Amino acid sequence: MTETTGIILAGGRSSRFGTNKSLALFKGAPLISHVAKCLETIFPERLLVTNDPGGFAFLDWPMTGDLFRHCGPLGGIHAALAQMRTERGFIIGCDMPLLQPDFITALCSLEGEWDVALPWLSTGPEPLHAVYHRKAKDFLERRLLLGRYKVMEALQALSLRIVDFDEL
Predict the structure, then answer these.
(1) What are the residues whose beta carbons fall under 8 Å from the beta carbon of 66, sequence distance 6 or more?
(2) How far apart, in Å, are the Cα atoms of 30 and each of 20, 58, 61, 66, 121?
(3) Pairing state between β 88-93 and 63-64
(4) Do residues 65 and 116 touch, judged by C-beta distance below 8 A?
(5) Whether 50 contacts 56, CB under 8 Å
(6) Per residue in 32-64, pLDDT tens?
(7) At residue 13, does pLDDT exceed 70?
(8) Is the pLDDT of residue 108 over 60?
(9) Cβ(168)–Cβ(117) below 8 Å
(10) Which of 58, 95, 96, 120 has minimal Cβ neighbours within 10 Å of its Cβ?
């Protein structure tokens, strides 16, 4: 996994949850700790995208903030692509503690010329459990500059490698 950075997005306001959900306890530890531990077993290069670096210092991960603030997950994805040193980044939300390392490794190993390798389950796409190529950064930046922040809208204009339920 040396060509891929493991990236956690932890920039959400958790407005529906009421408190910072990344720090909510799950099996005795913050949700984000479970995600971080899983990614640490897979990726030598890691990055946390957050606008609250002090709140996550306990992870001891390299961090960056949103370059475009208050733009939701699309702003976090863009910040990750702008700061990572590898060509691809596996981007995951901070609130997904039940990760499957084998699936992540397989997703990151997909061949081809695509912008995003996107799992598409029966419940729909999972854009915050996907692999993004660095070349999508400029396109996402143009969308952010236009005030267009919806992730799925942006993905529709990119080259997708859909990973459907059967392939999973």
Answers:
(1) 11, 49, 51, 75, 76, 78, 79
(2) 10, 11, 15, 22, 26
(3) unpaired
(4) no
(5) yes
(6) 999 999 999 999 999 999 999 999 999 999 999
(7) no
(8) yes
(9) no
(10) 58
